[in-house]
Write a structure and sequence with these properties.
The protein is an alpha/beta fold. It contains 10 helices and 12 strands. It has 2 domains: about 5-90, no CATH class; about 95-255, NAD(P)-binding Rossmann-like Domain (Rossmann fold, 3-Layer(aba) Sandwich). The protein has helices at about 15-20, 40-50, 100-110, 125, 140-150, 165-175, 190-200, 205-210, 225-240, 245-255; strands at about 5-10, 30-35, 55-60, 65-70, 80, 85-90, 95, 115-120, 135-140, 155-160, 180-185, 210-215. The chain has a 6-stranded parallel beta sheet, sandwiched between helices. α3 packs across α9. The longest helix has 16 residues, at about 225-240. It is elongated, with a radius of gyration of 22 Å.
């Protein structure tokens, strides 16, 4: 039996429809319905995603035939009435170093934003207070945890332990990984001391430490762990989405004497 051709369905053509489906003023929702997609092709897509590959899927809207192609970077959805192409990628991941109130708030926000979250803390007294479900917990030393995590371009690593041994070991591994974001807690004074320490004792360079977001987060005048977590997650999402202001906001809106995130 031949495969049925896909069908394009539009919602929001009329004002009544827009109100019914909760669409914004002038908004329209278009869905391409695929009937009887090839099970083998779908299984291949799932296998590639489980292998953390980025895949571009293209559907012929007349025949329903679909093809998969490896992608080097996420691309925008493309629809010209004849073909529909979209990028599928593995879930974004976050590795947090150090359990605590701030890490719990960051983990909760990350889960809401569809990150798979791993927490590393070899300190039982800190780890045993963890209260956020849905987070994978590991007890290795932080540098080993980064290596086991195998960061890729859809991963971020955030050091929040306030323990220089744990944070530094993780960061020295993370800075040379493909992770799209590497951040560390601390005041500006502590961040400057860390930079000097990395350059003088660990053979890092001015260029390599430029990858480090520290003090972590966009400056929003945050004081409490919950507020700091908002600034951290905002910066991570800005970097993930390629938003231009991510670095500029840090430079322009943090006062010279600021020492938040101590």
């Amino acid at each position: 039996m031949p495969r049925s051709a896909p069908r394009l369905v539009r919602y929001g053509v009329t004002a009544g429809e827009a109100r019914r489906f909760g669409l914004p003023c002038g908004g329209m929702l278009e869905l391409l319905l695929e009937f009887e997609p090839d099970p083998a092709a779908l299984a291949e897509l799932v296998q590639r995603l489980e292998a953390r590959q980025l895949v571009r899927r293209t559907v012929d809207c007349r025949s329903g035939a679909a093809s998969l192609k490896a992608a080097s970077a996420p691309g925008p959805l493309h629809f010209d009435g004849t073909t529909l192409s979209s990028t599928f990628g593995p879930q974004h991941r976050m590795l947090l170093i150090g359990a605590g109130a701030l890490a719990e708030y960051v983990a909760t926000m990350a889960l809401f934003n569809d990150f798979a979250v791993t927490l590393c803390d070899p300190r039982a007294e800190h780890r045993d207070t963890w209260a956020v479900a849905g987070v994978h917990i590991t007890i290795e030393m932080s540098d080993d945890a980064v290596r086991i995590f195998v960061p890729d371009a859809r991963s971020c690593i955030v050091a929040l332990s306030h323990d220089p041994k744990l944070d530094d070991m993780a960061l020295l591994e993370a800075l040379h990984s493909p992770a799209f974001y590497v951040g560390a807690i601390g005041s500006r004074r502590n961040a400057n001391s860390r930079t000097q320490r990395f350059i003088e004792h660990f053979d890092e360079t001015e260029a390599s430490v430029q990858r480090l977001h520290s003090p972590v987060g966009l400056y929003i005048g945050s004081k409490t762990p919950a507020e700091i977590a908002v600034s951290v997650m905002a910066e991570i999402i800005a970097v993930k989405n390629g938003a231009v202001p991510a670095r500029r906001l840090r430079a322009e809106f943090r006062s010279p004497s600021a020492a938040h995130h101590d």
